[in-house]
Specification:
With about 80 residues, the chain is an all-alpha fold. Helices cover about 45% and strands about 0% of the residues. The chain is built from four helices and no strands. It is globular. It starts with 6 loop residues before the first helix and ends in a 7-residue tail after the last helix.
Length: about 80
């Protein structure tokens, strides 16, 4: 799903709502945006020599994910 280009597949993870559709009713809304922010935050923390502009221009999503080393924690 992370690399899908079909917007309908991932819209539910980005939209405003009382919770994220497909997840528990007590889940946070717009969880896709939060996860994306965590990936960017980790990437920037792990790569201090890279500016945000350089990150923005990077086209290799696999490289960003690899260098971010983001691992969601189980709660």
């Amino acid at each position: 799903m992370l690399f899908s280009t079909e917007q309908k597949k991932f819209n539910k993870y980005l939209e405003e709502a009382p919770f994220t559709a497909g997840l528990a009713n007590n889940s946070a809304p717009r969880i896709g945006i939060w996860c994306g922010w965590q990936i960017v935050k980790n990437y920037m923390n792990n790569n201090p020599s890279i500016s945000f502009d350089e990150l923005w221009k990077e086209k290799d999503a696999q490289k960003i994910l690899k260098l971010a080393t983001y691992k969601p924690k189980n709660i």
